[in-house]
Amino acid sequence: MDNLIVLLLVGLIAGFLAGKVMTGHGMGLIWDIVVGILGAFLGGWLAGALGIAVGGLLAEIVVAFIGAIILLFIFRALVGRGMLRRT
């Protein structure tokens, strides 16, 4: 249960910060958490692939933030090209 709470908090913080950096404002509580959690998985995977050990809450937030930034960048690129637009 504690791990779930930490994951949600890390996701919320990382997603909110990434939303602020990429859009100038947060994306709402749920989307901030979703982007942050997905960013944490992506960032953790990238850190592992690069041989970077991640330990501690601050490091987890930084890694999740970087992953969330990458996700938002990819999402913007796809939406900007019209690949995800509905007609």
The amount of helix comes to over 70%
Radius of gyration: 13 Å
Number of domains: 1
Q: How far from one another are the termini?
A: 42 Å
- The percentage of residues in β strands lies in under 5%
| SSE ordering | HHH
The biggest sheet, with number of strands, parallel, antiparallel or mixed sense and barrel status, is: none
Mean pLDDT: 83
> Which structural class best describes the helix and strand composition?
mainly alpha
**Number of helix segments?**
3
How many runs of DSSP E, i.e. beta strands? 0
Keywords:
single chain, 87 residues, mainly alpha, 0% strand
Structural notes for this entry:
By secondary structure, this protein is mostly helical. The chain has one domain (2-80). It has helices at 2-23, 29-49, 57-80. Helix 1 packs across helix 2. The chain is globular.
Q: What is the fold's blueprint, element by element?
A:
Layout: H1 2-23, H2 29-49, H3 57-80
Provide a concise account of the structure shown.
The protein has 87 residues and is mainly α.
